[in-house]
Design brief:
Layout (H helix, E strand, L loop, with lengths): L1 E3 L3 E4 L2 E4 L1 H38 L4 H47 L1 H14 L4 H25 L9 H25 L6 H24 L3 H27 L5
Antiparallel strand pairs: 1-2, 2-3
């Protein structure tokens, strides 16, 4: 027997919390947050690397500022464009899969019902329980049930390429601002590079911690990995700047 309550399905005395059907939405939001954190992280590392490269080549404060702004603008646009293209392809794929599922439901609803029940059997339900759940969900919204179970997506909610592009642009630009401002706005010239190193390390420790918390990983490992990659990037670009800077025309 299937009984629908306000917050759950009760089937043969077993409760199926609606939380199970909300996990996909929560995971989607966490993915957006993780993408924002990683975008900021990329902005910090790449801009800091470029700034250290031109600083190693002997550029003055004005040259460092120009290079930093160029890195911010070019990187933000590149990130936004790449995200727009990627998410557009994902959206097209999702819509095509939903359209195919809609046609299959129209052509052979009985087979689709059995297929949906089979999916729930694979989750550990008994055949009878799986059939009852599949029937209840099909009666309410067959396309939604199949899209969530088979495709792992919502049939009426698709990712927005425009929103993804804007969020990537903003995240990268925000991350780039930190090394740019630290390297150019510090009033004591001799302390600009050390201050920038410290600022980058602290900010990457923060983004590493947040990314680890979102992903459920160990924060210390993520922080160390983030900081080491940044230190390597800054060291290599600074060294390259020193090596090739002397050979450039004044």
């Amino acid at each position: 027997m299937v009984k629908k309550t306000k917050s759950a399905f009760e089937i043969e005395g077993q409760i199926l919390s609606t939380e199970e059907f909300q996990k996909s939405s929560m995971a989607h939001k966490l993915n957006w947050l993780r993408a924002g954190v990683l975008g900021a992280n990329d902005g910090i590392v790449s801009t800091a690397g470029l700034i250290f490269g031109v600083a190693g080549a002997g550029a003055n404060a004005n040259g460092i500022f120009i290079a930093g702004v160029a890195a911010l603008v070019a990187g933000s646009i590149s990130m936004a464009g790449g995200e727009y293209t990627s998410v557009s392809a994902q959206k097209d794929s999702e819509m095509a899969a939903v359209a195919k599922e809609r046609q299959e439901l129209k052509d052979n609803p009985e087979a689709e019902l059995r297929e949906l029940a089979w999916f729930y059997e694979q989750k550990g339900m008994s055949p009878k329980l799986a059939k009852d759940v599949a029937q209840e969900l099909t009666n309410k919204d067959a396309l939604k049930a199949h899209a969530e179970a088979e495709l792992g997506i919502s049939h009426d909610e698709h990712v927005s390429p425009g929103a993804a592009a804007i969020s990537s642009f903003v995240a990268f630009a925000a991350g780039s601002l930190l090394p740019l401002l630290t390297a150019t706005a510090t009033p004591w010239l001799e302390f600009r590079i050390p201050f920038t190193v410290v600022a980058v390390i602290l900010s990457l420790a923060l983004t590493g911690f947040v990314a680890a918390q979102i992903g459920g990983a160990k924060p210390l490992r993520a922080i160390i990995r983030n900081v080491l990659v940044s230190l390597l990037t800054m060291s290599v670009t600074y060294g390259i700047g020193m090596l090739v800077g002397g050979g450039l025309p004044a």
